[in-house]
Amino acid sequence: MRHLQIMCFSQMQFKYFKINNHNTKQNDVIIIILAIYVRLRGPCEVSREPKFWREQVKMKYVLLIASFVVVTSAHDDHEHDHSHTEHNDGLLRAIVKLQEPLGDKVHGKVTFTEQPDGKVHIEGVIVGMPPGQYGFHIYEKGDITEGCSSNGGHFNPENKEHGHPNDENRHAGDLGNVVFDENHVSKVDFWDNVIKLSGSHSIIGRAIVLHSMADDYGQTEHPDSKKTGNAGHHVACGVIGYL
Ligand SMILES: [Cu+2]
Ligand SMILES: [Zn+2]
C-alpha cells in the first residue's frame, strides 16, 4: 500500500490529506499536481509515506513560530535607525566626488558599499594622473574649505601608526595606493575590512585624498613614513556622503 500525505499551513490552519492508492505512477502525477496546488496556498509538504506526521506537524509549528520571530525582529531592526540611508538590498552606500582645489585635470567618482559581513567595497574611476601609484587615504575631517589641506590627518580612531591596508597596525584611513594606467585612468575596485559606513569607524563626512606620490606603507626610513606614508601633497579630494 502506498500513501500520499500532504501537510499544509494556511493562515495557521493545518490541513492533512491522505490518499490510498495502489498505482505508484498515478501517485507521482497526483503528488506533482497537489504539490503545485498546495505550494500556491502556503508552506506545504508532500510525501509518499504517512510516517510520523504528528512529529512533522510539531516541527512545522516550531519553524513557523521561529520564522515569525525572525521576521518580527528583522522588522524591529529596520525600524530601529533611520539616521542613514539603506537601499532596497539593505546595504549602506556612500559616494565621493574627487576634485582638484584649483583645476579640473584630476577628478573622479568613488562609491563605497558596506556588505552584510562588514567589508566595504570601494569602486570607481579617477582620471588625470600620469601612470603610476598614488596614495589614497581617508582624512579625519570633511573640511575642504582650504583646498585639500584643511582636512586634518589620516582618519585614525584607534591611534595607530600609518601602514599598509592589510596591516593590523594602520590608520583606518589607510587605503593604500590607487594605480593609474597609460591612459591616465585609475579603475578603483578593492575591498577594505577596517573602514565602515556607520559607527566609530565611519568614513561619512570625512575627506578622501589622492596624493602626488606613492604611499610607502610606513615601511621606509623617511621621517614621514610612519605618519603619512610619505605620499607627497594632496592633489585631489572630496567629502564622502551617504548615497
Ligand atoms: Cu594621506
Ligand atoms: Zn595613514
From TrEMBL:
Keywords: Antioxidant, Copper, Disulfide bond, Metal-binding, Oxidoreductase, Zinc. Residues 150-174 are annotated as: Disordered. Its cofactor is Zn(2+); Cu cation. One of its GO terms (molecular function) is superoxide dismutase activity. Residues 106-240 form the Superoxide dismutase copper/zinc binding domain. The keyword Metal-binding applies. Its EC number is 1.15.1.1. It catalyses: 2 superoxide + 2 H(+) = H2O2 + O2. It holds the Pfam family Sod_Cu. Residues 157-173 have a biased composition (Basic and acidic residues). InterPro entries: SOD_Cu/Zn_/chaperone, SOD_Cu_Zn_dom. Belongs to the Cu-Zn superoxide dismutase family. This is superoxide dismutase.
